[in-house]
Write a structure and sequence with these properties.
Strand content: 15-25%
CATH architecture of the largest domain: 3-Layer(aba) Sandwich
Structural class: alpha/beta
CATH class of the largest domain: Alpha Beta
Strand order of the largest sheet: 6-7-8-3-9-10-12-11
Number of strands: 12
Oligomer: single chain
Number of domains: 2
Helix content: 25-40%
């Protein structure tokens, strides 16, 4: 089966007038199969959003390849990119800024169909009504404006617009982080239902591990512009193979106070290094409690350990007793 998305050795470097370039993304590779949801997680500034923008062609990469539904978009001419964009759509973080306040909801949702010449007149209105119904809104909402809706309703409208062309790939960049907790579950359940019903591949960018666990099939963990680990969801949450992944999971608070007190604490010393001057060897070694001499000198290979692909010299020891004690 052909992958819906293939990203190979993707790098995005931002030039700086005085100094080395900022390596926001520095050699990221992954694939997403049709109907699969891949979660991309990591701390703020690790490069998640830059990856998502590069995938949909909003950010030109420094190097690498991005193939969406069989079409290479890196270096593609304008006509090819325009055709490819019909097969990929993006849902942004803030629905309030994703919608033109001067356009009715019907005009916003129907614009992709109108621009592509797929529907006009009554046919367009019928398609818009159907799209609004798919996301739980009523046909009469088409005549209203964005300010007349709540945050959750606006995100439903953005999702309806993204689905108008029936894309092969949907990229969601923190789609619920700007919403109230009370409506997050509704939007997430809607995304899961639509993704399964339409068979879309989805790249789901988030820093919320609980959200990722709910909606994703596989999870990729980024640190300082590179992937640290990529694994099936259940395998990653049950037995992470990278010390950074383990630290992220242990940082998630438990609702039970006794369980929270029983969780081991993983000390991550210092701050995230600058992406303009990443450390040699393993990029995580400056904060890793397991760091040893090879970590400071040699870049770890991307290799299979159990069900995970991981970049760590000592991945087999991550879940061993005493792993939280600093290395030599």
């Amino acid at each position: 089966m052909t992958a819906a998305l293939t990203v190979a050795d993707l790098a995005v470097h931002y030039p700086v007038r005085h100094g080395p370039p900022v390596r926001a993304v520095d050699g990221v590779s992954f694939t997403i199969a049709p109907g699969e949801t891949l979660g991309l997680v990591g701390e703020s500034g690790c490069g998640k959003s830059t990856v998502s923008k590069s995938v949909v062609g909003l950010q030109a990469p420094t190097r690498g390849s991005v193939v969406v539904d069989g079409v290479e978009i890196v270096g593609a001419d304008r006509r090819t990119l325009r055709q490819a964009r019909a097969r990929m759509q993006m849902v942004f973080q803030d629905p309030a800024t994703s919608l033109d306040p001067r356009m009715t909801i019907g005009a916003a949702v129907g614009e992709p169909l109108l621009v592509r010449g797929l529907a006009r007149g009554q046919a367009l209105r019928d398609r818009v009504a159907g799209l609004l119904a798919e996301v739980g809104l009523r046909p009469e909402h088409a005549t209203r404006y964005p300010h007349q809706f709540s945050g959750g309703q606006r995100q439903r409208i953005v999702i309806a617009r993204a689905l108008a062309l029936r894309p092969a790939l949907l990229v969601c960049d923190e789609p619920v982080s700007a919403l109230d907790v009370s409506v997050r579950a509704q939007i997430l359940n809607l995304l899961v239902e639509l993704q399964r019903g339409l068979g879309m591949a989805t790249l789901f960018v988030s820093h919320d591990l609980a959200v990722v666990r709910h909606v994703c099939d596989r999870v990729a963990v980024m640190y300082l512009g590179r992937l640290a680990e990529l694994a099936p969801r259940d395998a990653l949450f049950a037995a992470p193979r990278h010390p950074y992944t383990r630290a992220l999971l242990l940082a998630v608070p438990e609702p039970d106070p006794a369980a929270q007190r029983a969780k081991p604490r993983v000390p991550l010393a210092g701050e995230i290094p600058s992406p303009a001057n990443p450390p040699p060897g393993c990029r995580f070694h400056t904060r890793c409690p397991m760091a040893r001499a090879p970590c400071r000198e040699q870049e770890p290979a991307w290799r299979q350990v159990g069900e995970s692909m991981v970049a760590c010299h000592f991945a087999e020891e991550v879940n061993s007793p005493g792993v939280d004690k600093p290395g030599c």
